[in-house]
Amino acid sequence: MTKNNQPKDAREVLDELGAKWSPDMGKFLAGEVDLSQMRCALCEKNPCACPEFGSDEYFALIDRRHGRRS
Ligand SMILES: [Zn+2]
Known about the structure:
0% strand; 33% helix; mainly alpha
């Protein structure tokens, strides 16, 4: 089941990148929601309620979103 020469679909590429997307990305791609209606990919809130960029809380949130535990 090799598929080296086949183009990857977007999901595969994103999985490889380990990208974190809004939980609404699927709906957005399906045209069901506007970009402005998407929840934040990091805090999963709309409007975004992320901690201040660069703060300890901000990095802690990123760590959580990446599944790391300290
Ligand atoms: Zn946010």
